[in-house]
Amino acid sequence: MLRHFICTLFFSWSLIVFGYGAPANLDEEQNIYAQIYNAPIKLSPTQAQVSLADIYNRKPMLLAFVFTRCTGVCSPFLLQLNETLRQISGKYLYQVVVLSFDPRDDVEAMQSLSTRLHLEKSTQWIFATTDSITALNLSLGFDPIWDSSTNQFDHEALLVGVNTQGYITKKLLGIRGDLELRQMLASINNAYIPSYRLPADNDLFSCFTYDPTTGKNIPNLGLLIIALPALVSFLLLVCIAFFSRNKAAKWTE
Amino acid sequence: MESLKLKKITALWVITILVLFLAAIVLGILMRLNQAEVINQEPLTFYTNMTTHGLTMIGIWFVAGMAAVNYLLQRYVKTSYTANLFAFILTVLGVVLLWLCTYLGKFNTGWTFLYPLPFKDLGAAPWATPLFLVALTILGLGWLVWSVSMMAKILQRYTLAQAFAWQHLSKQPKSETPPFILITMITLVGVIAALIAAVIVIVLFFAEYFSKGSFVNDALLMKNLIYFFGHTIANEMLYLGVAVIYEIFGELSGRPKWKTTWYVSLAWNSALIFILTAFFHHLYMDFVQPEGLQIIGQLASYLASLPSVAVTVFSIIVAIYGVRIQWSITNCLFFLGVIGWVIGGLGAVIDATISNNIVLHNTLWVPAHFHTYNAMGNVLFSLGFFYWFTTQHVSKLVISKLTKFALIVLIISGIGFLMAFYIGGADSIPRRYSTYPEALTTGPALARMGAYFACLYLLVILMFFYNIAKRCFAILSAPSSSVGA
Ligand code: HEM
C-alpha cells in the first residue's frame, strides 16, 4: 500500500518535471519498422552472452534505456513504467529489457539497480549490459550525449517496442501515460493501432471535430464536401437538360 | 454518315492510345521484372514507372471509351467536333506534362497521389507537384468540356426522362431509347461527377501549396475525394466500352440490334446511383470514416456492378445462344472482354466485402482484379472497336488462322499474367512493393511468371497494333472522297 502511494507521488512529481503530455516528438517516427540491431547482451556475471534476438524471438520486447549513475529521469522512468504496466497488462505478451547505454556500467551494477526497484525476482524484467551500444543506438536513432561538467549523459527516457521478428514497432520518448503504453503493447504484438491527426485551426475542412470532453467525433464541413461532386453534377445535368430543350424547341419552331 | 473529320480525329485518338499503351505495358513488365529480381532498379525508378504506368493506362482507356462513344453517338445526334479536338489537344498536352513530371521531376506518388504524399519529400523535384497538378487540370478541363458537350447534344434530342430510359419502366413505353444512349448518359453523369471531384481535389491541393502552412487539408476528406474521382472514372470507362458493345455487337453478329427493356433501364439507372457511392470501399481501413459510409460502400459495390453485369451477360447469351452467329475479330474481342469484365468484377466484389477486405486490402488481389477487367476486359472492348472502326465492314473482320492463334495466345498470356497477381493476393503479398522482403518467398517467383506472360501479351498487342495502326494511317492520309464510304 505504502509502496503504491510512494510510487504515485513519485509519478505525479515526475510528470511535472519531465513534461507529461508533451506533444509526440518527431524522433519517435524515425526508425519505425526498421530492424533493431541484434546486439550481444550480458545478463549476469556467470552466464555467457546472449543476443537480443534470443530475447525478442521468445516474446515481444519493451526495451528501456538507462544508466545506473543517472541522477535524473532513469529511476522515475523505470518506476513509472513498472507501475503503469502493472495496471494495464492485459491480453498482450511482453517482457521488459532494461539496458544500460553507459559503457561504465557492468552487470553487477544493473543487478543492484533491479534490486533497488524490487524487480530482481520478476520473470518479466531483464537487466543487461552490452558492448555494442553504438551500433544499437544507431539502429534506433538514439543519441545520448556525455556532459563532462555534470558527469551525466544528456538523454531522453527512451522506450522501444520490438516485435518477435525484431522490428521496431513504436518508440516513446519521455515518461508516458497508460494509453500510449497500451498502444505500444498492442504494436509489439502486431495489433493494428488506429491514429488520426487532430484537426487544427488551419484545417478548415476537416471531416470531424474531436470533442475532448465527450471523446466523440462531431461531423464537420469536410463530410459535406464529399457529397459535393454528386450534387453539382446532378445540378449541372438539370441545367443542361433545361437549356438544351429550350434550344431544341427554338430550332424546331 | 460519320463525317470525315470525325473519322480522322478518331483515327488520331486510336494511334495515340495504342502507342501509349505499348509504352505503358513495357513499364508494367519492367515493374514485374524488378519485383522478380531479374532486373535491379532503384525504388525511385520503380515508383516513377508505377505512377506513369497507372496514370497513362487509366487516361488512355478512358479516352478510348470516350472516342468510341463519340464516334457512335453520331448515329443519333450531331456531336461537337471542336470539343473532340479540344479534348485531344489537351489530352496530348496533359500526358506530355505528366511524363515530364514523372521522368524529369521524379514524381512518384502512385496514380492515386494520396494526400499528403505529393507534399512529402519522396525524392521528386520541387516543381514536380505543382506541374502534376497543372497537368491534371489540363486533362480534367479537356475531358469535362468533352463530356458536357456530348451530354448537351444528347439532351437536345432526348428529354431527361428519355435519355435515362425512364419510360421503359412503365408497361407500354411511348418512345424508345436505344440502350447505347441510356448507357452513355448514365456514364457521362458519372464521368462529370468524377471530374468535379478531381477539380475540388486540385483546388484543395493548390490551396495548401500556396498557403505556405496557413491552410492544411484533411487527410480523410482528401482520400474520399481522390477515390471519388479515381474509382469512379476507372469504372465509368468500362461502361463506355459496354455502351459500344450494346450498339454494335448485334449488327456485327448478324443479329437484331439490342433493345432497352424495363430491366435494362432499371439495372443501368441503379448503376448510376450506386457507382457514385461505391468508392467508399477504398476506405474500409480508415477507422474514422463513419460506419454508415462503410456499409453503403459494400452495398453500393454490389448494386452498382451486379445488375449491369447481369443484364449485359443475359443480352449476350440471348444474342449467341442456339444460333449461328458470324464471329469476327471484333465480337470475339467483345465476348472475351465481357468474360474478363465478369471475372474481374467478381474479384472486385469479393474484395469489396468488408470481412474479406480485412485480409485482401492492399494485397496483390487489388491489381489482380482491376487488371482483369482492364487488360482482359476494357482493353479488349476498345481493341474490338478499333478493328471495327478501321474496317467498318464485317467481311473485313473475319478471323484468319493467325488471328485465331493470336487470340489464343492473348487468352493464355492474360490468364498467366493475372494468375500471378491473384495467387500473390491470396498469399497476402502486398501490392506496390518494388522488391519483396525475404519473408515473402513466393513474391519474386510469381512476379517472374507475371512478367513472362506479360511479354507474350505484349507480342499479341504488337500484332494488333500493326493491323490497326496501318489502317488508321490510311484513314488519316486518304483523300476526302474515299473516307467514310
Ligand atoms: C500486360 C499489361 C500490364 C502489365 C504488365 C501491368 C503491370 C503492372 C504492375 C506490375 C503494377 C504494379 C503492381 C503492384 O502494385 O505491385 C501495375 C499497376 C497498375 N496497373 Fe498495370 N499492367 C498492365 C496493364 C494494365 C492496364 C491495361 C491497365 C488499365 C487501366 C493498368 C492499370 C494499372 C494501374 C491503375 C496500376 C496501379 C498503379 C498504382 O498503384 O499507382 N495496367 N500494373
How is this structure best summarized?
Chain A has 253 residues and is an alpha+beta fold. Helix content of chain A is 39%, strand content 19%. In chain A, the strands form 3 sheets. A 7-stranded mixed sheet of chain A has the order 2-1-5-4-3-8-9. A two-stranded antiparallel ribbon of chain A has the order 6-7.
Structural description of this entry:
The complex is a heterodimer of chains A (253) and B (485). With 253 residues, chain A is α+β, with helices and mostly antiparallel strands. Chain A has a domain of 177 residues: Glutaredoxin (3-Layer(aba) Sandwich). Chain A is built from seven helices and eleven strands. In chain A, strands 2-1-5-4-3-8-9 form a seven-stranded mixed β-sheet. Chain A has a two-stranded antiparallel sheet with strand order 6-7. In chain A, a hairpin with a 5-residue loop joins strand 8 and strand 9. The longest helix of chain A is centred in the last third of the chain and has 32 residues. Chain A is elongated and about 95 Å long. Chain A starts with a helix and ends with a helix. About 9% of the residues of chain A have low confidence. With 485 residues, chain B is mostly helical. Chain B has one domain: Cytochrome C Oxidase, Chain A (Up-down Bundle). Chain B has 14 helices and no strands. In chain B, helix 9 packs antiparallel against helix 10 and helix 12 runs parallel beside helix 14. The mean pLDDT of chain B is 94. Classes of the chains: A alpha+beta (253), B mainly alpha (485). At the A-B interface, helix 7 of A face helix 4, helix 6 and helix 7 of B. Bound molecules: protoporphyrin IX containing FE. Protoporphyrin IX containing FE binds next to helix 1, helix 2, helix 12 and helix 14 of chain B.
